[in-house]
Amino acid sequence: MNNFLKLVWNEQIKLYAKKSTWIMIALIAAIVIGAGLLAKFMDSGIQTEEYGADWQSELQQENAALAKEMEEDEFAQFSNPFTIQKNEYYLENDIKPLPYDGWEYVLENAALTSLLSLFTIIIAAGIVSNEFKWGTIKLLLIRPISRSKILLSKYVSVLLFALMLLVSMLAASWLVGALLFGLNGASPMIVQETAAGFEQTSVLKEILLGYGFGMVTLVMMATFAFMISTIFRSSGMAIGLAIFLMFAGNTLVMFVSQYSWSKYILFANTNLQQYFNGNEPIIEGMSLAFSLTVLAIYFAIFLAAAWTAFTKRDIAGN
Amino acid sequence: MAEKAAMTLIGLKKTIGSKPIIKGLTFEIKRGEVFGFLGPNGAGKTTTIRMMVGLMDITEGDVLIEGKSIKDNFKEAVRHVGAIVENPEMYPFLSGWKNLQQYARMTEGVSQERIKEVVELVGLGNAIHEKAGRYSLGMRQRLGIAQALLHKPSILILDEPTNGLDPSGIREIRKYIRNLAEKENVAVIVSSHLLSEIELMCDRIGIIKKGELIAIEDVKTVEDHSALKDVHIEVHPLEMAKDYLQSEMDQTIAINKKELIVSAKREDIPQILKNLVNRGMDVYGVRILQSTLEDKFFDLIGENAIE
Q: Where is the signal peptide (chain B) (predicted)?
């Protein structure tokens, strides 16, 4: 076990010795800071003012103004009803709206998990194929260590890298959010729109779910890229395929969703959000347990294919 | 032969697709010996080396390292091997030192002191803290050797170690290798497609052609001064010299263009020349064919062509 940790340590050293890794981290920091500043200082329609003691009449006045605006402005007809309904929910349930805060900023940044997926795919696609590209694979595989262990250490390193990105992004979002917008306590409740209408829920729970759903796609696509690069020894091909499928996957599923076999496609199952907040699954007859099973099978196939290619292969040429 | 071999190849075969690449190699290498693995490009040297270190699957036969099979007992076998396969490739973005640390962590019992020791041995000095990407080929070759020596292997395999090195670099490598074999009792396997580059560092040379071992030659007999060598003498008049030497030395002497070819010991050459000059013949040049090994190599291999 001890020497497995040393292998992972080796991989981490190689990862962080490269400039491209730090550029990824810097990009994430820049986006989190930039988006925060934009939201704070541009008119982005977020509620930063705190409501007074008579917040009910403030909301009513706001709704009246919004309704009036809708009569004059066509664009407002699209955007205003959402705010009006939300305000009505506050009034009906006697909840005083809280101003936008750092927690909500963290929650909104859950959308950035696709950026984390992108970066993790790039790392996963390079971690094996680069050893072939540099020619160092020959020095790596003539140590008294089994190939399986070396491959596993590389896979674990990819996951550690993803975890590091995730933690850095959460920390940066929280810090930037707290500095720019303040915090409504340690675990405030927020009002969210779901398929079943508005609902009050804990922001921490939403953050956990939002990032958690993002991680499913991340892990699956990173594992896919890891497999492709191990089999074909080409990081470019692995990155291209994984990113294309990540973004086009849903569309592909939509194309064939009239067939019942389409529910076995990986991308029909990566979005677990379809089972929460009163959403309907994209193909009838799917359930959370079904999707988790399908994901587990794909995951096992990806790793088994990578393992077979890596342990059985003759290391020839460069 | 009483000493146990460091490495033994037993009927080693490799078939890729339906094409036999290596057609059954059997030989052994002893500790303290430098073994040259010689053959033209494409003869199967690198394939054989890849099988020796477990980078390639063995189709048939086996390689025993310190008595352990690389096929069935990879970890125990490869523990005793240090190798550079083809070029000494390193992580270009890590310093030489950090490159060595990578490999040190992968084998038990390699201390920081050992890394320092090895760096000193190959003479990398302060350059060890520069990024390996900036190293010259000679420096990379040294770092490659350092990497191979970290875990004190009993067998060192160097694939074309003189490739791309200048003559002084080759001389230096030769010095390291002789030292390792003689002082540390390491078995060294050196592959090359150029006889001239490894002739001086090897004790024995195995010649491989088209995946078959066609000869194993002892280099030391070649250096033996009492052996007969072909001496070419450019002399005028040719016939007179021939008749004289034939009667005097009681052996057949061939004529090749303007030269006589005499089979003689090195120590006899001055006397032959003196005799010729004393009889009033003009000697324009004398040359000894560089080594019988080179002749043999060319006889066996033919031209240095890839077949």
A: none
